[in-house]
Amino acid sequence: MWTMLWNRMVVRNEMGSFVACKISRMVGLFSPTIAEIMGVREALSWIKDNNWQNVIVESDNLQVVNVLNSMNVENFSMMGGIVSDCRSLINEISCEILFSHVFRSANGVAHALAQATRSFPNAMEWTLSPPEFVTHLLL
């Protein structure tokens, strides 16, 4: 059975202030790890498109963070192909990108975006001003 998965991305500046957030969806049969690495690939593409600098990509999936920090995955695996895509995007982005693990409980904005996906049939992006349902989490 196909499942609908939602990517949630939040961008803050060096002072922790809101820059942008986005939700997008994927349909398919994905393990949680594959879904997370696909979300990171989409985030890297978003970073590249917006020319953001000095980026820290946070994930609550420690395996994904470890793989991206080591960049050692055999290319014949599904995950290896996606990591290869991530490497290519990283090479195209002209800034330092760090990958960091965060506990799910510490990522309130992403959780609020996940809850909100039920209200949005399609992808959404917010820039300059955050959506009302996350403003209290950004203080």
UniProtKB/TrEMBL annotation:
One of its GO terms (molecular function) is RNA-DNA hybrid ribonuclease activity. It comes from the Eukaryota. Coiled coil: none annotated. CDD domains: RNase_H_like. Residues 8-116 form the RNase H type-1 domain. Pfam families: RVT_3. This is RNase H type-1 domain-containing protein.
